[in-house]
Write a structure and sequence with these properties.
The chain is an all-alpha fold. Strands 1-2 form a two-stranded antiparallel ribbon.
Length: 534
C-alpha cells in the first residue's frame, strides 16, 4: 500500500508539472500573439498619419498645387514600401555588423508566420514618416520624378542605416560604451525616433529646401520675407489632429511589449508624457507669437500653435518612457521656443520651407535627443550627475552629430546631382500656373470650383479691364483705351467649358492695358499695384 501510494503521488506530481509546463507554453504563445496584434494595430494607426500629413500639407500650400502634394504623399507610402521591402529592412535589421545589416533582402529567409514580419510592418510605417517630412519642405516647386528618386533613397538606404546603428542589437550606437566604474553599458537612447526618424527627415528637408531654392515670390528683391498664406487652415488643422493621434500609437508601439509586468503603467506614462509635451509646445509657440509679434499686428496664430503641438510630440519621442510628466512638459515647452527660433533662422537664410518642417522635425528632434541625458529619471544629469549620466550625454551627442552628417551628406549628393542635371525643380512657368494642371491635367484639379472661377473670370474680365482703362485715362486726361476681348460666340464657348485659353489671353491683355497706364499712376504718387489688381 505504501509503495502504491508513492507511485500514485509521483504520477500526480508528474501530471502537475506537465500541466504547469503546458500552461506556461500556452501563456507564452498567447502573450506573443497579443503583442504582435498590438504592434500590428499600432502600425496601422501610425500609417494613418500619412493622411494627416496629406491634409496638413494640402491645407498649407496654394490650391493650384493641392493634387500634386496629395499624390506625393500617397506615393511616399507606395514607393517607400517597395524600397523598405527590397533593401531597407535588410540594411536596418538584417544581422550584419556594427555598420549595416546584410540579411533578409526582400524579406527572404523569414518564415511565413514569423514575428519578423510584424517588425517589418512597424519599422516600415516609421521610415515613410521620415520620407514624408521632405515633401512639405519642398512643396510647390519640385519635379515629380526627382522626389520619387529621393523617397526610394531615403526609405531604402539613408534611414535604414541610421536605424541599424541605433536600434539593431548589432548597431555600434546601440552597443554603446562600458562605464567600468559603475559596471554599466551606456547606449544611444532614442525611444521612438526623435533622432532616427525626425532628425533624418528634418535634415533631408533642410538640404532639399536649400538646394532647390525658394518659391517664386517668397522673398522680394531686397531679400525680405513675403509670407505666402496657407490655402485653408481648416484642412491643415484636421491634418494636425490626425498626426497628433498617430503620435500616440507611434510612441506606444515603440515600447514593443504588452504582456510583461508593468507594461500597462508604462503605456500610461508614455501617453501622458506625449500629451504634456504637446501642450507645452503649443502654449509656448502660441504665446511667443502673440506677445513678440503683437507690435506688427499679429494675433493668435493657429498655424504656429499646430506646429507647437507637433514639435512637442517630436521632441518627447526620444524619452517618453523614461522621464517624469513634469519633465515632459518642460521638453515640449523648450521645443516650442526652438521651433520659433529655427523658423526665424530659416527666413534669415532665405530658405523657403512652406510647412516649417525643418523647424519642427530637425529642431524638435535634435532637442529631444539631447534632453534624454538630462531628464532621464534613472540616470539623468539633473538627478544623478555622475559618470554614467555624462557619458550618456556624450554618447547621445555623438549619435546626433553622426546622424546629421550622414543624412546631410547623402541628401546633398542626391539633391545636388539632380539640380545639376536640371531635374529637381519645375520651370518657372509651370510653378506659376501650378503643378496640378501641368502634371495631372485639368480633369484632376483638387477643387471643382477652380474651373468655374476661371470661366466666370473670363466672362467678366472685359468689363473690369474697360473700367480700369477708363479710370486711368480720365485721371491723365488721355483717351480711354478700349480692348475687345471676346465676341459672343467665343463667350458662349467659354461658358460651355470648351476651353480656358481665351481666359488666359484675356488676363494677359488686362495686364498689358494696366501696364500702359501705370506710369501715369506713378506720376500722381499712387501706390496702386497692377499685379494685385489682376
Amino acid at each position: 500500500c505504501v509503495q502504491s501510494g508513492s507511485r500514485r503521488k509521483r504520477k500526480e506530481n508528474s501530471w502537475a508539472r506537465s500541466l504547469r509546463l503546458h500552461q506556461q507554453a500556452v501563456m507564452s504563445v498567447l502573450a506573443n500573439n497579443v503583442e504582435d496584434a498590438f504592434l500590428t494595430l499600432g502600425a496601422t494607426i501610425v500609417f494613418f498619419m500619412q493622411a494627416g500629413f496629406a491634409f496638413l500639407e494640402a491645407g498649407s500650400v496654394r490650391s493650384k498645387n493641392t493634387t500634386s502634394i496629395l499624390f506625393k504623399n500617397l506615393l511616399d507610402a507606395v514607393v517607400g514600401c517597395v524600397a523598405y521591402w527590397a533593401v531597407g529592412f535588410a540594411f536596418a535589421f538584417g544581422g550584419g555588423n556594427g555598420f549595416i545589416g546584410t540579411e533578409h533582402f526582400f524579406l527572404s529567409g523569414i518564415g511565413l508566420h514569423s514575428r519578423e514580419v510584424v517588425r517589418w510592418m512597424v519599422q516600415y510605417v516609421y521610415v515613410i514618416t521620415a520620407a514624408t517630412i521632405v515633401s512639405g519642405a519642398m512643396a510647390e516647386r519640385t519635379e515629380f520624378k526627382s522626389y520619387l528618386v529621393f523617397t526610394f533613397l531615403c526609405s531604402g538606404w539613408v534611414q535604414p542605416v541610421v536605424a541599424h546603428w541605433s536600434w539593431s542589437d548589432k548597431g555600434w550606437l546601440h552597443s554603446g560604451v562600458q562605464v567600468e566604474s559603475h559596471n554599466f553599458t551606456v547606449r544611444f537612447e532614442d525611444f521612438a525616433g526623435s533622432g532616427v526618424i525626425h532628425v533624418v527627415g528634418g535634415t533631408a528637408a533642410l538640404v532639399g529646401a536649400a538646394v532647390i531654392g525658394p518659391r517664386i515670390g517668397r522673398f522680394d528683391e531686397n531679400g525680405k520675407s513675403v509670407r505666402i498664406s496657407a490655402y485653408t487652415t481648416t484642412m491643415a488643422t484636421l491634418g494636425g489632429f490626425i498626426i497628433l493621434f498617430g503620435f500616440f500609437a507611434f510612441n506606444l508601439a515603440s515600447h514593443g511589449s504588452l504582456s510583461q509586468v508593468g507594461d500597462g503603467s508604462i503605456h500610461g506614462l508614455i501617453a501622458a508624457n506625449c500629451m504634456l509635451a504637446c501642450s507645452g509646445g503649443a502654449i509656448t509657440a502660441a504665446l511667443y507669437k502673440r506677445c513678440n509679434e503683437r507690435k506688427h499686428g499679429a494675433q493668435w496664430s493657429l498655424v504656429a500653435t499646430i506646429n507647437g503641438c507637433l514639435v512637442g510630440m517630436v521632441s518627447v519621442s526620444a524619452s517618453a518612457s523614461t522621464i517624469y510628466p513634469y519633465a515632459a512638459f518642460i521638453v515640449g515647452a523648450v521645443a516650442g521656443l526652438i521651433y520659433i527660433g529655427v523658423t526665424g533662422v530659416m527666413e534669415r537664410w532665405r530658405i523657403d520651407d512652406p510647412l516649417d518642417a525643418v523647424a519642427v522635425h530637425l529642431g524638435g528632434g535634435a532637442w529631444g535627443v539631447l534632453a534624454v541625458p538630462f531628464l532621464d529619471a534613472n540616470i539623468g544629469v539633473f538627478y544623478k550627475a555622475n559618470r554614467v549620466s555624462f557619458t550618456l550625454l556624450g554618447w547621445n551627442l555623438c549619435g546626433l552629430v553622426v546622424i546629421f552628417v550622414w543624412t546631410f551628406a547623402w541628401s546633398g549628393i542626391a539633391f545636388g546631382l539632380m539640380s545639376w542635371l536640371h531635374m529637381l525643380r519645375v520651370p518657372a512657368e509651370v510653378e506659376r500656373r501650378g503643378l496640378d494642371v501641368v502634371v495631372h491635367g485639368r480633369s484632376e484639379k483638387a477643387y471643382a470650383y477652380q474651373g468655374i472661377q476661371q470661366r466666370q473670370r473670363g466672362s467678366s474680365i472685359a468689363s473690369l479691364a474697360a473700367g480700369l482703362s477708363g479710370m486711368f485715362a480720365s485721371e491723365s486726361n488721355e483717351k480711354p483705351t478700349t480692348v475687345q476681348f471676346m465676341d459672343k460666340s467665343t463667350r458662349r464657348r467659354e461658358s460651355q467649358g470648351t476651353t480656358s485659353t481665351e481666359t488666359e489671353n484675356a488676363c494677359e491683355v488686362l495686364e498689358n492695358s494696366v501696364a500702359i497706364s501705370t506710369p501715369t499712376i506713378e506720376s500722381r504718387g499712387s501706390s496702386l499695384d497692377p499685379e494685385s489688381i489682376v
